[in-house]
Description:
Structural class: mainly alpha
Helix content: 55-70%
Order of helices and strands: HEEHHH
Amino acid sequence: MIGxxxxxxxxxxxxxxxxxxxxxxxxxxxxxxxxxxxxxxxQDHQDHKVVTYHDKQHNDDxxxxxxxxxxxxxxxxQNHRKYQTFSKLKENDQQAYWGWRHEHSDAQLKIExx
Length: 114
């Protein structure tokens, strides 16, 4: 009986050792796949310069991105203005937009943020 218990324990050690090795190999194979999206996002963020504008009336900064451009296009249409690149607008026209923008949230404008 003593020899039987010893053999059972020996078999469990072999099975546990095999399981541990398989788990380590699996983790080692998965790490590059889980890290790749983070590295790509970091690279993508570095490739694109973030442009911000200061709103003097509300004393805050706004990041210019696709959502803001979409809102600006709505503003231009609503106010019967010809679309111009925002950075080329006169400062008082930019400030007028920021005043309008503070009154119109993404939800009101139905801008989907992902």
